[in-house]
Design goal:
The chain is α/β, with parallel strands linked by helices and 551 residues long. It is 46% helix and 10% strand. α6 links the parallel β3 and β4. The radius of gyration is 34 Å and the shape is extended. The termini are far apart.
Amino acid sequence: MTSQVFYRKWRPQTLADVVGQEPITRTLLNALATGRVAHAYLFFGPRGTGKTTTGRILAKAVNCLDNETGEPCNICSMCQAFMGGRALDLIEIDAASNRGIDEIRALKEKINFAPNVAKFKVYIIDEVHMLTEPAFNALLKTLEEPPAHVIFVLATTEAHKVPATITSRCQRFDFRRIPQAAMVRRLEHICQEEGIKADPQALALIARSATGSLRDAENLLEQMVVYHGPSIEVQQVRSELGLTGDARVRELAKLILARDVSGGLMMINRIANDGLDLRQFNRELVDYLRGVLLVKADAGAAIELTAEEMAQAREIAANISLEEVSQAIKLFAQADFRFSPQATLPLELALADYSLPLTLISDLSLNGVRPAPLVKPGAGSGQAQGSKPKKGEARTTPRPKEEAVAASIPIEPQEAMVEPPVARVAREIPRPEGSSEIEHLQQHWNEFVNACRGEGSGGNLDALLRRACRPVSLEGHSLTLGFYAEFQKSKIEDRKYGRMVERKLKEVFGKPYEIRCILISKESRPAPILASESPLVKEALSRGARIISEE
């Protein structure tokens, strides 16, 4: 007893039956109805989207004996021959195994012969990008001016590998991935015709796992029927695909985004104790967080969710920022289970990292809690010319123009210190009542410096301002900035940098200022805050962090 697999048995036989490619099928149907069929077509798209099937329907339609509307009738002798695989004038070539110039030369010799029975001889060359360069060159002239009785259909999944000289001689059609809803409708039709009782959620899960390939979805449906019989439940599909399908994915996502460390850790361990595959659970968690990200960014149409799932995603997205959900996705997507001594540890670490304030890690790094070893007085510039750097030290080439200036600035021994923690500036900073304008500028100066990140050549404007200057006085709109070293002062006095500073001052503080630069003594520098006394570091210490060193 023999039977055909679903994807062959239910292969579309008319252009109207082709799923999810309406712009392409409409164009071809109009071409067939008006007699404006091209001599060569290039069909490009992912696997399982209908490229070869459309080529076969096109071959059948141009040779149909009763083709008045453009669609093949599927009744005449020619249509029956094409449908039964008996048509001698439909030649399908697999370019992956017939990729050389000899095969193309043999094809060129046969092209000039008239069709055996049909009106047109149709050549479908699948995976055409696999042809060698000499083979493409041999095909070029034939493709440009083929005999009147020949039509070429070139199909490929990698159009960028097809030479432009070939592409320019074809009408190109880009097949898109088939939408999930269209695949579900097709699967429902197959189930109805085959007498299969399938849960709608099971079909939706099959369609989602096929990622736009109808052939993959049909194969999976048949696999489920063979294994479980004519009744398919959603749990059976989840088991076959290795999905947990656990509602705790959404619950854990809520706890993560709410920064509920205790509840999140308890749930992770309960999930592990229940025997779920944590890797697969994490993949589903990241996929769910991605959905929340798209919903938050008003791009929910890009994903296919039920009305209930969309409502849940909107509820979660309403309480978080885009930056927060993006950070969560990065942390959990990078969770590495390969070498973890405990199965739950990667998820626990990702949750603990996410529970820290958004600016904590970046600000700790920025403000020097774990700084590189600082150069001691007299040790930095004392290396003899021509001497080799010690093993492990990076070779550096100092900038000649800045080296002399930098050398004149005395290097002070420093302790590991941080400035008061500030959030990155996202909007204009209002001045509170009762404070003078200069006090307001001084109080929020570090926030202004953070807002200067990425400005200047090389994005180093904030580096020039950080710990190098401070507002000293204000007369009208003239703001005096005091610098501790001539190098930074001369840089900011340059009109290029000066205009940048004035522009950022207006953006951050909402008022235009003209800056004036002066040198001030180091004694007037504000006292630094030791790392161990910073509120930011105290928060990290309370969550289990520790300071590596304070120099």
